[in-house]
Design a protein that fits this description.
Oligomer: single chain
Strand content: 25-35%
Order of helices and strands: EEEEEHEEHEHEEEHEEEHE
Number of strands: 15
Structural class: alpha/beta
Length: about 260
């Protein structure tokens, strides 16, 4: 898929939690083709301490409104600067980068479970929309510490059933995603993104149940094209750059269970 370097226009920046903002971007021309699971490298202008681009998952692509959505966790100088963007500002983006989720070739018996935690829920929204467009209704399993940390649940509900866990029990079932009762049901494929310990636990569950599973890794990335080697992950095929060979991997390629 062809990569582009584009100055996109900020349509709006919406505060969706205490720690997260949703940036909606657009362009005069139709946005390039993008797949669920790919990511964008954005340049942070106006922040002297931020020299490198920031990798951000593609949260959603609205073809009708010609919008690209980026969910940003505000955790440092660079992301704080991004949160200050206003409508009409320009944001330089390299996109689309990496390899996305694997979509099924047929849908009749495909029962996917999409498991996300924290800001890791971001790439699952566009995946859910793509599955829904194929006639597949996914089940989402979303985890957070408290109710106020859950993100975009109303949007996920547009594309499938939403199950929730919170560590404090403020909404949904109390505990971690791997404790939820929905895991007693039968699924044929699992997609997951979030904190590494969560993804490893989901991976163990999938392997115990002999369910195919893909994980979107969140290693530190700088260049986005496999040149700087800061995002290397040990795999069954040796060390691979997550930004170029991933960020989505079949968990059987990873050395998590060794």
């Amino acid at each position: 898929m062809k990569k582009h370097i584009i100055d996109l226009t900020v349509r709006c920046v919406e505060r969706i939690s205490e720690k997260h903002v949703l940036i909606r971007l657009t362009d005069e021309r139709p946005l390039p083709q993008m797949s669920a699971g790919q990511f964008v490298e954005v340049r942070v202008d106006g922040e002297p301490s931020t020299f490198l681009r920031r990798p951000i998952s593609i949260n959603f692509v609205d073809r009708i409104k010609n919008e690209l959505w980026l969910m940003v966790a505000v955790v440092g100088n660079g992301t704080r600067q991004l949160a200050r963007l206003q409508a009409g500002d320009r944001l330089n983006c390299v996109l689309p980068l990496g390899n996305g989720w694997t979509l099924p070739s047929f849908s009749s018996s495909f029962r996917p479970l999409l498991v996300g935690g924290g800001v890791g829920v971001a790439p699952l929204l566009y995946l859910g929309a793509e599955l829904k467009a194929m006639g597949i209704e996914p089940t989402f399993l979303l985890g957070a510490k408290t109710q106020r940390d859950l993100l975009e649940t109303n949007l996920f509900e547009q594309y499938g059933r939403v199950c929730v866990t919170t560590e404090d029990g403020s909404v949904g079932e109390q505990g971690f995603v791997t404790n939820h009762s929905v895991l007693d049901e039968v699924f044929t494929y699992i997609y997951t993104c979030g904190p590494t310990p969560m993804m490893k636990a989901v991976s163990r569950y999938a392997m115990q149940k002999d369910i195919a599973c893909e994980a979107s890794l969140e290693n530190m990335m700088a260049c986005g094209v496999g040149a700087c080697l800061c995002c290397v992950e040990k795999t069954t095929e040796g060390n691979l750059c997550v930004c170029k060979e991933g960020p989505v991997f079949n968990v059987k390629r990873l050395l998590w269970q060794i």
